[in-house]
C-alpha cells in the first residue's frame, strides 16, 4: 500500500529512469528478499534507492530464521582512524552486525579483505557540515541498511567515535529498549527556537521545533519513516539553511511530530559540549585514563525503559587519531573487549 502511495506522489519522479520502473523491478521471490545485496555498489540515484528501501518488508515476525542485527553506519570524510579498535570490538559477533560507510566520493578505502570494513563503502555524494546534505547522507546510509531485512536497529557514528562498552552490552541495551535514542528537546534562544522560520508552517509550527544530537539510534520502523518522508523534508531543505544547521533539527523535529512516544529523547553517544564553541571538545592522549571513562560510565543518570540507570552512553566522541594506541592497549580494562 505504501508503494502505491509513494509512487503516486507528485514531484517525486526524477532522473533518467522513473521510480515506477525501478520499484517494480524489485526481486519477486522470498529468497531474493531474504538475502541482503551481495555488493554495496549500485547505480541508483537517491529517489530510486529510497523507493527500493521503502518497499522492503517491515514486519515483527519473519517466516524464516533471522538473526536481528545492528547496522553500524559510519558518516566520515575519509579514513577511519579507529578501525583497529572497532575490529577488536566486532570480533566474534559476525551474525549480529552489519557495517555501512558513507565517505566523500573521492575517497577510496584501502582495507584488506580480512577487515570487517572491506568493501563497506556505499555510493556517496559530497556532504557539507551543517547543511541538508548531511541529512541526505544519513538517509542514504539508512536506505542502504534497510535493504538487508536482518538489520533491525540503526546506529549513526562518525570517524571520531569509539565504542565504550563491549558488543554484548551494546547489543542487549539496544535490542531490549522499548525506545529509539534520538535527542529531541525544545531549546529557547539563538541555538534553538531562534533558528525556526515560520515559512515552515503549516507542516511545522514553533511549538513542534526540536533540537538534538546528530548521533542517533533508531529501530527499523523509524528508519523507514525517515527515508519515506516527503512532507517535512522539502520545508527543511528550503528554510533550514545557513545558521539553522539542519542536521540538528530535521530528524528530531520530524520524528517528534510523527512518533513522539517512540523516542527516549537522548543520545547514546557521549560528547563534551562544556566549552562554548560550535564544535565539541576533542579528547587527546591525556584523556585516555581509567578515571576519564569511569566518569562517563558512572557519573550520569538517565532513564532506560522508564527506569533510572547510570548506563547512559554506549559510544563516545570526539577522539583524536593519536589516542588509538592507548585505547587499544587498555580496551579490555576500560571497555571489556
TrEMBL record:
Q: Spell out the InterPro entries in the cross-references.
A: BC10-like, Glyco_trans_14
**Keywords in alphabetical order:** Glycoprotein, Glycosyltransferase, Membrane, Transferase
What are this entry's molecular-function GO terms?
glycosyltransferase activity
Name of the molecule in the record: Uncharacterized protein
Q: Which PANTHER family match?
A: CORE-2/I-BRANCHING BETA-1,6-N-ACETYLGLUCOSAMINYLTRANSFERASE FAMILY PROTEIN-RELATED, CORE-2_I-BRANCHING ENZYME
Keyword Membrane in annotation? yes
Topology relative to the membrane, per the entry? Single-pass type II membrane protein
Q: Where, subcellularly, is it found?
A: Membrane
Does the keyword field hold Membrane? yes
Superkingdom field? Eukaryota
Q: What GO cellular-component annotations does this UniProt entry give?
A: membrane
Amino acid at each position: 500500500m505504501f508503494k502505491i502511495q509513494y509512487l503516486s506522489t507528485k514531484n517525486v519522479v526524477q532522473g533518467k529512469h522513473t521510480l515506477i520502473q525501478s520499484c517494480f523491478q524489485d526481486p519477486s521471490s522470498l529468497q531474493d528478499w531474504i538475502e541482503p545485496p551481495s555488493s554495496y555498489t549500485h547505480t541508483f540515484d537517491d529517489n530510486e534507492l529510497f523507493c527500493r528501501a521503502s518497499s522492503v518488508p517491515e514486519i515483527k515476525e519473519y517466516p524464516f530464521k533471522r538473526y536481528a542485527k545492528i547496522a553500524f553506519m559510519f558518516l566520515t570524510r575519509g579514513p577511519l582512524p579507529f578501525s583497529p579498535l572497532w575490529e577488536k570490538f566486532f570480533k566474534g559477533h559476525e551474525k549480529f552486525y552489519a557495517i555501512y560507510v558513507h565517505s566523500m566520493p573521492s575517497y577510496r578505502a584501502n582495507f584488506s579483505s580480512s577487515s570487517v570494513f572491506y568493501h563497506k563503502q556505499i555510493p556517496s555524494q559530497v556532504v557539507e557540515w551543517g547543511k541538508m546534505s548531511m541529512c541526505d547522507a544519513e538517509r542514504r546510509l539508512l536506505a542502504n541498511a534497510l535493504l538487508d531485512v536482518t538489520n533491525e536497529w540503526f546506529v549513526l557514528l562518525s570517524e571520531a567515535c569509539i565504542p565504550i562498552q563491549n558488543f554484548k552490552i551494546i547489543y542487549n541495551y539496544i535490542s531490549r529498549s522499548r525506545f529509539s535514542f534520538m535527542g529531541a528537546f525544545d531549546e529557547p534562544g539563538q541555538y534553538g527556537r531562534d533558528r525556526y522560520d515560520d515559512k515552515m508552517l503549516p507542516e511545522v509550527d514553533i511549538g513542534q521545533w526540536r533540537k538534538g544530537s546528530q548521533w542517533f539510534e533508531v529501530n527499523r520502523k523509524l528508519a523507514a519513516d525517515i527515508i519515506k518522508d516527503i512532507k517535512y523534508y522539502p520545508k527543511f531543505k528550503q528554510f533550514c539553511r545557513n545558521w539553522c544547521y539542519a542536521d540538528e533539527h530535521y530528524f528530531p523535529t520530524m520524528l517528534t511530530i510523527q512518533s513522539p512516544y517512540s523516542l527516549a529523547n537522548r543520545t547514546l553517544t557521549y560528547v563534551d559540549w562544556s566549552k562554548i564553541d560550535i564544535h565539541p571538545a576533542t579528547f587527546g592522549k591525556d584523556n585516555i585514563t581509567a578515571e576519564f571513562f569511569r566518569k562517563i560510565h558512572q557519573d550520569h543518570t538517565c532513564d532506560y525503559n522508564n527506569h533510572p540507570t547510570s548506563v547512559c552512553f554506549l559510544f563516545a566522541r570526539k577522539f583524536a587519531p593519536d589516542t588509538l594506541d592507548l585505547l587499544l592497549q587498555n580496551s579490555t580494562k576500560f571497555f571489556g573487549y
